[in-house]
Structure formats: C-alpha cells, structure tokens
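During the reporting period the student researcher (J.K.) took over the structure-prediction task from the postdoctoral fellow and processed the backlog of single-chain submissions. One of the processed entries is reproduced below for the supervisory committee.
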Amino acid sequence: QVQLVESGGGLVQAGGSLRLSCAASGHIFSIHDMGWYRQAPGKQRELVAVITSSGTTNYADSVKGRCTISRDNAKDTVYLQMNSLKPEDTAVYYCNAKVSSTPLSSSVFYWGQGTQVTVSS
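J.K. obtained the following structure tokens:
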C-alpha cells in the first residue's frame, strides 16, 4: 500500500502565494507520473499540473505562468508552487501518483486526502 500526504494549503489573499507538498510513502519501487488536481465546490475534479519521472511537465491553461510543479525523486515528493493566486483557484487540491510497488507489478494510481486552498478577494 502507498500513502500520499499533502501539506501547505491554507487561506491567502488574492495575489499571494502558496507551496503545496505531497510526500509518498509505503511499498514503493518506482513512481512514474505525479500530479496535482483540484476540485471546487459543485465542480468536477480537474488537472492542475503533472510531472513525469524524467521531469517533463504539463499544466492546465488556467494556471500556466502562475504555477510550477517540481519533484524530488530522492524524497518521493512532489511540489506545487502557486503564485499570483486568484479567488477562482479556491478548491481542494489533491495529489496523485502512479506507483509501481515491485519491478514486475503494474502501476497503480494513488490519491492523497486533499488540502484546502482558499483565496480571498
């Protein structure tokens, strides 16, 4: 089993910054893609950013230029630096990781429990 634990959410004023972290632990052989998703009240969960094991990144258009995803493979941790935050960024942010637990096992997607980000106007 693999656990993902997020941290770094909170309340911030519009224009401010936050840095989210997500640490993976448990039975891990390798972590492939890691990403951040968010879900606002009454809306579907959406991709914010994703990073491959080699460092290739992809961002939602709504956060391009304002957010940076990065990872520390030695720590099995992914980060999301969010700048110039807007009220519409308010959501629960979830960490996601595609993990192989053994050299021969298929990869499995795991989710964190979510961390609340609230941006006040």
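The committee noted the following: The chain has a mean pLDDT of 97.
J.K. will present the remaining backlog at the next meeting.
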